[in-house]
Structure prediction request, 157 residues.
Amino acid sequence: MNAYTLLPFIVLIAAMFLMTRSAKKKQQQAVEMRNQMQPGSGVRTIGGMYATVKEVNEDTVLLDAGPGVDLLFAKNAIGAVLSDDEYNRIVHGIEHDLKSDADLVPDDASSLTETDETDGSAAAAASDDKIDLGKKDAAEAKAEDEPKKSDGDSDAK
Prediction:
């Protein structure tokens, strides 16, 4: 046989080996994650339910889904073990803010604009100037809204 005829088979076998190897790694990581579960941990099941671990057995997990609601799940049904911050954010809506209070935006904009001027005369002069924003006076707007009469139009009906 020629080496070129065996090459596709060799490539196919190598690809299958690599795919099964990565799948085994993922399964091992999932088993390790499930073995690290402790009572009090927040979890998400493969069905999308969030609960707190109440008791961990060899093949099963007892979950507390709410006041008075205890559910027994197989360990394989646990999709993810969540960190405390993530569980509180998702279930209770509690955001853990890492920013300091100094970064918060104040309610008024006065502290956002700093001027080096000691007297407020320039600021007062700037506030007295009117800025044309394209708005019209009420009289001008009313006059433009009325239909204009042409030579043949009259008010009589």
